[in-house]
Amino acid sequence: MRHFPIFMNLDNRRVIVSGARACAVAKLRLLLKTQADILVFGANPSNQVLQWAQAGKLSYFDRPVNAADMNDAALVYGANEDAAEDKRATYLGRAAGALINIVDNLEDSQFITPAIVDRSPVTVAIGTEGAAPVLARKIKQQMEEGLPEQLGLLARIGQAFRPAADNIPMGRKRREFWSQFYFKRGPLAWAKGGKAAVAQELDTLLNETLASDPEQGHVWLVGAGPGDPELLTLKARNLLHEADVVIYDHLVAKPILELARREAIVIETGKKGFGTPWKQSTINALLVKHAERGHHVVRLKSGNSIDSSETAALQNAQIAFSVVPGIAISNLIQAPPKPIEVELV
């Protein structure tokens, strides 16, 4: 990953766009979604730039940008459709401490502008390191089709409700509350009665959650197979996405571990050719400890074998557990070759 994705707060920050024609307009369409103070410099402006300036959405200056304009700038775009002027403008921006982007010049840019799916305050940024813009646009199209328009409104309602939801203990119980709201009960309430119904459903869901019993721990024993994440069953993937704790042996492939939730506790165990090996009794105790804390634990082992001592330890501690096929048999079996037909004469 060459470009690390971040979201920058541009509220009341100065953004300079050097260039005022079609190349600049493409960037301005995205920048105008923010609350930035946008300054555009350049001769022969497009009608769109003039319209935005007349509407007070940005400030336009019919001249080249200079060093004084760069004071306190957060971002500077070189969009002149002129390599020499882009270089001059972004040099001034870099000297002033701003981050710079030169349109269609990945090597000399400090940041890139991704494709964006806007369901504010939900924003999805899609980048391909500049390698495949067409691919980014296709992904954007697919995500826009899959994310309903009311998603942003649900997010804003949920954001206002957060102080009340803070009464739910941190961890799985609170995550389950928000999952129920955003993916099930919120959309259903919206379809039935709009914003008022959503607000009422939130109150009902909160009372139900606060009155529910504490979350019980559970351990899922999952065989990770030969290491290809594409071979994992859907259930195994979903468990990794939702797990509080992932305990794995060192032979489990990194691409599979990447499926784990970022906030999950991820612990490597197992025997190695160097260092102090883990004792099986220690691994067993670790499984029991986290489950007793109410955690949902995924125990990942390479291949498809499950350790009988682990299941025995969980049974002795009266911990609920499930054995989950990590790899579907059909994923490992290739279709048999077609028989060769021989014509007898």
Overview of this protein structure:
This protein is of the alpha/beta class and 345 residues long. The chain folds into three domains: 14-113, 3-Layer(aba) Sandwich (Rossmann fold), CATH 3.40.50.720; 151-211, no CATH class; 218-329, Tetrapyrrole methylase, N-terminal domain (Cobalt-precorrin-4 Transmethylase, domain 1, 3-Layer(aba) Sandwich). The protein contains eleven helices and twelve strands. It has helices at 22-31, 47-54, 83-95, 133-146, 151-165, 172-211, 234-242, 254-257, 280-292, 308-316, 329-332, and strands at residues 14-18, 37-41, 59-61, 73-78, 99-102, 115-119, 122-126, 218-223, 245-249, 265-269, 296-301, 321-324. It has a five-stranded parallel sheet, with helices on both faces. Strand 2 (37-41), helix 2 and strand 3 (59-61) form a beta-alpha-beta unit. Helix 9 packs across helix 10 (308-316). The protein starts with 13 loop residues before the first strand and ends in a 13-residue tail after the last helix. The relative contact order is 0.08. The model is unreliable at 332-345 (pLDDT under 50).
